[in-house]
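Researcher: Please predict.
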Amino acid sequence: MRVTCAQCRVELHLDESKMPERRFSVRCPRCQKPIVIVPPGQEAPATEPVVETSASVAELTSLLRELLNSAPAGARANDSRNRRRVLLCFANPDLRNEITSSFNDLTYEVIAVEKTDSAINAMQDAKVDVLILDPNFDQEERGYETMMRYVSDLHPKERRRFYVVVVSPHYKTLDGRAAFIAGANLVVNSADASTLQSILERSIRDFNELYKLFHRAAGIEPF
């Protein structure tokens, strides 16, 4: 069964044999908006509100996994412009690979670099949404300091649309005070690298909630 998200228009395929008998809703893996799924043979009244059904947790988990993993490769490529673009600047190749693999390629495009000039070029040539930095990045060229200076020199309007994450064994994950001192939006302990996507998304939700009134008054879309 083909399912299309009404918000971001991503198209996914579901195995009908795994669907409950009644209609239900799950969240889109890309934009997090509810997707109403109507089993074959049922009609969804246009004016009837969406109601969560009593489908088992196992059924919903299976279907959500289907949404995350079964999108056609072509759809992923065609919708790359709608993914968040992450610039990953890391000295340690093992940690760089671990973080890269932690991101779902349906919702994120990860650009991993090893040198400062490559990072600056990526910032200038690509629309980067998230910068993830290692304090030991390209130490010969003072890569960490150079990238943080680049970010601090951005116009405030640009800086607000840009999320900076610092990953280090010396930080406690989601420590807001440490993030403020570091000039970042989020700090993450290196031991949590394998779950960085979920930590980032939690931090962004908190950020959007904190600045909700400001965004509304300024007519700015949430991050």
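Model: The first strand starts at residue 2 and ends at 4.
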